[in-house]
Amino acid sequence: MKTKDVPQDDANMMQGKWRDPIYTLDENGNYVTSYSLGWDTKNAVMLHAWEEIHDRMEAVRQKVLSGELSPLAYYLEKNIMDVGLLAKYVGKWKWTVKKHLKPRYFNKLPDEMLEKYAREFKLTIEELTDIERIKNDNQ
Amino acid sequence: MDIKIDFEHKQSAHCENGVVSNLLKFYGIELSEPMIFGIGSGLFFSHMPFLKVGGIPVTSFRPLPGIIFKRISKRLGITFEKHKYRQPAKAMKALDANLKENIPTGMLVGVYHLTYFPDPYRFHFNAHNIVVYGKQENNYLISDPIMAGDESLTYDELLRVRYAKGTFAPKGHMYWVKNIPEKLDVEGAVVKGIQHVCKHMLTIPVPMFGVKGIRFLAKKLRKYPEKLGARKAASYTGQIVRAQEEIGTGGAGFRFMYGAFLQEAAGLLNKPRLRELSFDISEIGDKWRAFAVITGRIVKNRNKADESYDKAADLLLEIADLEEAFFKNLQESVK
Q1: Is there a domain that residue B269 lies in?
Q2: Please, are residues A33 and A62 in contact by the beta-carbon 8 Å criterion?
Q3: B86-91 long-range CB contacts below 8 Å, 24 or more apart?
Q4: pTM here?
Q5: B24, B100, B216, B248: which could form a disulfide with B29 (CB 3.0–4.6 Å)?
Q6: Complex ipTM, two decimals?
Q7: Are B108 and B239 members of one domain?
Q8: CB contact under 8 A, B253 and A22
Q9: B72: part of which helix (H) or strand (E)?
Q10: How many angstroms separate the first and last alpha carbons of chain A?
Q11: Which residues of B touch A29 (CB under 8 A)?
């Protein structure tokens, strides 16, 4: 890439934390470090990945509101986790966590277990179990 | 505790290079990011259809995390002390002990819970490298090679990222420079680094790796729409372009970095041929960017599969030919 071609398509993806260093060729054919605020192609692909996450969250939110899934399922998606990863974080078997995605098991969980989940999602138990909160969560 | 080691933070394009480069600089060894990348043979390609993450086959533009580290250590004779800790509290205590002895300490962390990371980049990726160079009250001073400036984390925040779970779970892993030989054979290490990259890009006898891997991906990619349907084909394609452009700067960015390395190496070894080749690899990087544009469009128009897949696959084949010629020339030049 030539230094003059470095894209500066800022979509605030780095939120001011850095600019991407790129090793580019200047007009004398020497490599220099250039800095890019972003590139449309990359921005679009990243935004698309987040759109997919938000689509999945929305689908799960509806299922939680209709009583098909427990609030745990929603926060799982919100934290971009899968059952296997959450199981590792709370130190339980995968199938145990899977069970807790169903309201009839989740609603009977002791505070101790709820506390573990809540801590992973940086919530209180009250927040974790509050379905209203999920209804009003604008992601 | 109030300790601030006089550690110079410098931003880099790739965290592993950056941490190694910054750590060595602390001990008076000036090796640029591209030099570390080149000596560590950081350029690679693999497409592994059977290895899936989130149900999507993995395409990767880099060797496994930690490999650059290992090769630098081997080729320059620099030894690192490395430790993992089962108990988080012990891992933090060991860190404090290091800081008291004025040792800037590198470590592996998960990105997702890094509080200073911008939200769009916060995925569950665990092989990120940072250096801790001080502690003031309850705050650890962090040099994160991706960040432009200095950062800090509280005790709890640092403990959390050091014990992130999942693939490549860091398990409190930390490392620091133990011994540096009196005389470094940088020239020899550069030649070895180049030879190694050529060998891996050209001669691994399975179709998933190196130049062969690029051709293999071209073949698969061409069939995606017919085999998977428009939407899934677009998801699969999205992983390729994300690996290329987002995660650790990947495809094109690594080619440009390798060019910078070859140019530096040309001066060091007094081999003008390497300077010529540094222009070729920059052009190949541009082709990878063009590939990202096409595949990015596929992801955007994900509901209809059109002739873009053929175009993308054709471009990949062109890139494979260019890279094959490039690495053969490079191999020849350091014989």
Answers
A1: yes
A2: no
A3: B86/B171, B86/B172, B88/B159, B88/B162, B88/B163, B88/B172, B90/B172, B91/B159, B91/B162, B91/B163, B91/B172, B91/B174
A4: 0.93
A5: B24
A6: 0.93
A7: no
A8: yes
A9: helix B67-76
A10: 38
A11: 279
**Nearest CA of chain B to the CA of A37: how many Å?**
12
Across the interface, whether the CB atoms of A15 and B118 are under 8 A apart is answered: yes
Residues B157, B276 within the same domain: no
Indicate whether B200 belongs to any domain: yes
pLDDT for the residue numbered B299: 87
Q: Which CATH architecture is the domain A47-136 placed in?
A: Orthogonal Bundle (1.10)
- Does residue B131 sit in the same domain as residue B278? no
For residue B67, tell me if it sits in a domain: no
Q: Which residue of A has its CA nearest to B301?
A: A48
Domain residues of chain A, as ranges? 3-38, 47-136
In a domain, B63, yes or no: no
**Which among B79, B128, B76, B132 is positioned nearest to B101, based on CA atoms?**
B132
Residue to mutate among B52, B56, B121, B288, with most A CBs inside 10 A, is B121
| CA–CA separation, A27 and A4 (whole Å) | 9
**Which chain A residues touch B293 with a CB distance below 8 Å?**
41
- Min Cα–Cα distance to chain B from A104, Å: 28
Are B171 and B190 in a shared domain?
A: no
Query: Are B131 and B247 in the same domain?
Result: no
Model confidence at B248, pLDDT cuts 50, 70, 90, reads: low
Q: Which residues of A touch B238 (CB under 8 A)?
A: 45, 48-49
Instruction: Write the pLDDT tens digit of every residue in B118-160.
Output: 998 888 888 899 999 999 999 999 999 999 999 999 999 999 9
Q: Which of B152, B179, B206 is the last residue of a domain?
A: B179
